[in-house]
Amino acid sequence: MPMTITEKILAAHCGKKEVAPGELINAKVDMVLANDITAPIAIQEFRRAGAKKVFDKNRIALVPDHFTPNKDINSAEQAKLLREFSKEHNLTNYFEVGRMGVEHALLPEQGIVVSGDVVIGADSHTCTYGALGAFATGVGSTDVAAAMITGEIWFKVPESIKFVYYGKLRKWVSGKDMILRTIGDIGVDGALYKAMEFTGETIDRLDMSGRLTMANMAIEAGGKNGIIVPDETTKAYEDDRAKRKPKYYKSDKTAVYVDIREYDCSKLEPQVACPHLPENTKGVSELTNIKIDQSIVGSCTNGRIEDLRIAAKVLKGHKVHPDVRMIVIPATQAIYRQAMKEGLFDIFLDAQAAVSTPTCGPCLGGHMGILAKGEKAIATTNRNFVGRMGHPESEVYLSNPAIAAASAVLGRIGSPEELK
Amino acid sequence: MKLKGKAWKFGADIDTDAIIPARYLNTSDPVELAKHCMEDSKTPDFMKRMTKGDIIVAEKNFGCGSSREHAPIAIKAAGVSCVVAKTFARIFYRNSFNMGLPIFECPEAVDDIKEGDTLEVDAQSGKIKNTTTGKTYQANAIPPFMQELIAAGGLMEWVKKKVA
């Protein structure tokens, strides 16, 4: 029976030759992830079940990244739970402040998740790792608690939708724009319960950073996972970082998809998702006079070095508009150091942008850039729900790093082409 | 088990940030979380106005967004007896069964039910009765494995039995 990459990975992890959509399976997990918001409940459930040992101390990653560096006493207490649990079980992959990063930027960067893996995380953006050709999906804390004990999780094998992208991307257009366009097309539940397989010549030419951005936002279309078949780009990325041996799967030519959607990317302009859903996408040229109060470049979606380079390229020689606060958040310590080495911080500081230590912070309205009533932000993050970045009457517009940087200078949503 | 309460209607794509805003996630205490249930929705004073047993009735894709289990935890701790929606977002659906919040998919009921109608839901059969109008509906059948989870008392109890 022909299978998709998603079906092949799931079959390999439940000891079967083949699986079909709709089938219920118990899969072995290669990595289990939780953060400072979701791990406390998982730890509590782990203990309540009377468990004494984790299934494998090398296959659990705890990353305090949401409200860290601890924003208040309660957050400090939650982070402390992770620290103590990690010590108690001698977990290899616990990342303290100073060694951490935004989880979905950190795990691929450190080679902790690799091609062919099944990864679950108590964080909806766990789907990011699909960019490596892994099956990765978000689950709840109780699922993580169970998997920390058994090393397994139940899944219903999802149906797959194939997305085919062709055409050369124009200047300032990126993976972020491709995924925003896709979500705008199919809607926030357009891929509900389904695997989103990203294919086509535009994907073939996309770097890992852009691929990670695309897989990251599969959940914003309701997808169970986003996935890209590994190629030379994937292999080159994993070459010097994979901590385990990657396994490369690819979809059979005759694999079955419930839908196939094609996108001509040669005509695509930078996309902006308007409040209050990621599906409310418009071309940046359609938004003519939306004044902003804040611009954020960062997050698991767009906080990688490539994103920072683009923002710096746009900002160079310019100053952030007097009415705008611009905050740049490198997603990991390694990205932070690299940006510093390349002189990007000088460009950000000269432009009068603030540079923060890695944190999810403002993306989920946690800290480090919260909006007041009536304020508007443009952000390279992934969600623009009501109250997502602060006051319920504030607004978030989602974009790529070039648009976020240009808008910071213009004081309104706009494109780098408009900067003199 | 019969779940009885007044219907509170919500729209499509109610996200987990509306159900429990992230600014309150510096705790996982159900009582604290429940205080802010639905605070960033169109009914921010839901907790002041609802009474124990009331039922959330929503359009498609309820619980989209974050994986935070705090969302079903807040709803359950708030005293909401169950959620009826046209569809549920995937992680919310999974979380609800794992931690024991009864949820039902029933598009016809959602279309008919008006805010304030009194509902009676049979948790086992998925039969929904609108006692205000007298109409009855049948929710989509709960998949056999989810029934197994419910019978076990949630995922952790199911796992305990499995590893024992």
Name its key features.
heterodimer, A: 420 residues, alpha/beta, Aconitase, domain 3, five-stranded parallel β-sheet, globular, B: 164 residues, seven-stranded mixed β-sheet, 34% helix
Task: Tally the structural domains of chain A.
Answer: 2
Biggest sheet descriptor of chain A: 5 strands, parallel
Number of strands of chain A: 18
Sheet-strand content of chain B, in percent, reads 15-25%
Strand order of the largest sheet of chain A: 4-3-2-5-6
The portion of residues assigned to helices of chain A is: 25-40%
User: What integer is the average pLDDT of chain B?
Assistant: 95
Strand order of the largest sheet of chain B: 4-3-2-1-5-6-7
Stretches of chain B where pLDDT falls below 50 for ≥5 residues? none
Structure annotation, total helices of chain A: 14
Report a brief summary of the structure.
The complex is a heterodimer of chains A (420) and B (164). Chain A is built from 14 helices and 18 strands.
How would you describe this protein?
The complex is a heterodimer of chains A (420) and B (164). Chain A is of the alpha/beta class. Chain A has two domains: 5-262, Aconitase, domain 3 (2-Layer Sandwich), CATH 3.30.499; 269-418, 2-Layer Sandwich (Aconitase, domain 3), CATH 3.30.499. Chain A is built from 14 helices and 18 strands. Chain A has helices spanning 5-13, 39-48, 73-88, 103-109, 141-150, 175-186, 201-205, 208-216, 232-239, 299-302, 305-315, 333-341, 344-350, 401-410, and strands at residues 24-28, 31-35, 60-63, 93-94, 118-121, 135-138, 152-156, 160-166, 195-199, 225-227, 259-264, 271-273, 281-283, 294-297, 325-328, 354-355, 376-379, 395-398. In chain A, the strands form five sheets. Chain A has a five-stranded parallel β-sheet. In chain A, strands 16-15-14-17-18 form a five-stranded parallel β-sheet. A four-stranded parallel β-sheet of chain A has the order 10-9-8-11. In chain A, helix 6 (175-186) links the parallel strand 8 and strand 9 (195-199). In chain A, helix 6 runs parallel beside helix 8, helix 11 (305-315) crosses helix 13 (344-350) and helix 11 packs parallel to helix 14. The mean pLDDT of chain A is 98. Chain B is of the alpha/beta class. Helices cover 34% and strands 20% of the residues of chain B. Chain B has a seven-stranded mixed β-sheet. In chain B, helix 7 (144-152) packs across helix 8 (155-163). The longest helix of chain B is centred in the middle third of the chain and has 10 residues, at 90-99. At the A-B interface, helix 2, helix 3 and helix 5 of A face helix 5 and helix 8 of B.
